[in-house]
Amino acid sequence: MQKLFSPLLAVLFVCCAYSQNTINVSNHPEWVDVQEYNKSPKVDEGEITQGTLTLLADYQINIFKQEAYFRLVYKITDNVGIQSGSNINAVYDPLYQKLMFHSINIIRDGKEINKLIPDHFQVIRRELNAENHLYDGSLSAMLNMADVRNGDIIDLSYTIKGFNPINNGKYSNSFILNDFVPIGKINVSIRTKNKLNYKTYNTSLQPKIINKNGSINYNWMVETPVPFPNEDNIPSWKIVMPTIIVSDYNSLDEVVKWAINIYIQNEPLNSAVKMKVSEISSANNTQGEKIKAILNFVQNDIRYLGLEYGIGSYKPNSPNKVFEQRYGDCKDKSVLMVQMLKEINVEAYPMLLSTTLKSTIAELPPSPNFFDHCVVKVIDKEKREFYYDPTMYNQGGTYKNTHFPNYEYGLVIKENNKAFDTITTSSNNNVTTFEEFIIKDFNGGATLNVATTFTDVEADRMRNYFKNNSKSSIKKEFENYYANYYSKIRIIDEPTVNDNVSNNEFMVSESYAIDSIWQPMKLKPNFIAMEFIPVSLSEVLYIPNMENRKNEISLPYPVSREHRTNIILPKAWQVERNNDLVSNDIFYYDFSVDYNKKKNEVRLKSYIKIQKPSVTPDEFTTYYNDLNKLDKSFGYTIYIPKNSKVNQGGNFFFSLGKIAIFLFLIGAFIFFLVWFFSRKKRVNI
What we know:
Layout: E1 15-19, E2 24-25, E3 52-62, E4 67-76, H1 81-85, E5 87-92, E6 98-108, E7 111-114, E8 122-126, E9 134-135, E10 139-144, E11 153-161, E12 172-176, E13 185-192, E14 197-201, E15 208-212, E16 215-223, E17 243-247, H2 252-263, H3 271-283, H4 287-301, E18 303-304, E19 306-307, H5 319-325, E20 327-328, H6 330-343, E21 347-353, E22 373-379, E23 385-388, E24 409-412, E25 421-422, E26 430-439, E27 446-455, H7 456-468, H8 471-483, E28 489-491, E29 496-500, E30 505-514, E31 519-520, E32 527-532, H9 535-538, E33 553-554, E34 559-568, E35 578-583, E36 587-596, E37 601-610, E38 614-615, H10 620-632, E39 636-641, H11 656-684
Parallel strand pairs: 2-6, 3-13, 9-19, 18-20, 26-34
Antiparallel strand pairs: 1-8, 3-4, 4-11, 5-10, 6-7, 6-11, 8-10, 12-17, 13-16, 14-17, 15-16, 21-22, 21-24, 22-23, 24-25, 26-27, 27-30, 28-30, 29-30, 31-32, 32-39, 33-38, 34-37, 35-36, 36-37
Helix pairs in contact: 4-6, 5-6
């Protein structure tokens, strides 16, 4: 989903190529409706950020001319806004688009100063997703304006001509009618020959529709909307802003037909690909083993690289080319995997989905532009359905239990398909941590042994972590991790691993020496303590910073964590057994304390399972209150008086339970003495 506000103020780019270009300049298109704006809109000036206030954001689209007109007017309200407000940046794809600037003016003291000087522009190749191995070939026409001052109004406009030819003239997009900061006016106009399929979210605003000269014009306009309140951790699939979604497509059937023409490959596999398939088939016995082996090959031997130029952003390369060059993006790798599976008579199809919108994709007007990922659906000989993501790598498991993310909905590219597949992940993504603390003496050090078992996507993640990092860096990182909780800790040896690939279980074993595990207590200065925190649980818990919530809260899902801590004490200890349980529809939490007298061993067990991917506003109070309940039993502390004889190896140990019993016995003894002597006096009388 594309955010359309303040795009010209952003200067985040990767400079991959540089050239001096002359920018095309023209008058405003005749079909554009010139918009008025208020130079001093009634907004809360205290909410203005970064020293700029947008006075007008104007987006006008002419579908049958395949042109998109943009006009942005903003005011520098503080000197900090001069830096970003001086930079003009318009982005376009040179393979099928042409950029035309119409005006760039500074309005100062009621006068217009022309800043549209074509020779002052620089055209730069921008690659915002280079770190993700995606290259789209787009260019940025950049202008750094001179002599911009506080109080200036910048008024700029340009048109991008040309739609991606892969869409065959069809159009779809999203427009946001608000921002997190004040804004004066937003205008969205779409001119088309055909009736437009649109849907609005979080607004009751309906378009003004005008039929004129054989065209239909849809117009949405808002002035000084109340800025949207910013809340953290909103799920990516949640459309929170007032938003318009438009599309020329009327059904999923149309989208599938469009995709079939692009994704279905008629070119036969060449001899090199067939030889590889034959090699894999011969090396494996069952159909499932062959499916998994082909997945492993496409994931691990075909590197991920997306050259998303022009129609390449939608159209996959041929499997033969992908196999030969040994790289491809999600659609390239998916189509190659599908064709290799078909070569051994396995039913398989490419499938489109949205990694961010997830199930929300089913609510939008149909369009291929709202999908951002391609994966593979496989149906084995027993008609069981499986989903695989060829862009992942080093995945463990068999063909039946290979982890597939919780993408929720997918559109299979298959003849006569008219509906989404509902995807339910089978992964638990569990991490089980077992810690053993061997306490050498009181007010002294300890030995810590740790064994952690990762499953599903967590096993895949750790497998890749150990493959991508050196042993020395891993050793240092592990040591630093525990150093956040225990001072004077050192790792005894580098972590060892045991990788059960077929079960997709990855175990890591660690061993540490802690010179001093006892620390002074902040709230009890005369006491020293050992604190044990189930840190693996805290990594998946989101703690809200406010007591009210208007939007959903995103949670990691599916996920579960089990954290066991055994503490072997040098001598007997009074430990109160305990079990705390917090359960609701959102998460399940179980904490218990046990004690083994024979081994002088305190046993702590903490377990949490996230039971749904988000918290709704209606559930927030329950979630918030139950987190407070959880917090009361989160972690465990053992403490003793700083100057207790136990520090010198004596036989008397303090704990809260023993202190209470001791005081109770003293009180009972005193009560008995008072009662006895008072009774004796009464007898003597």
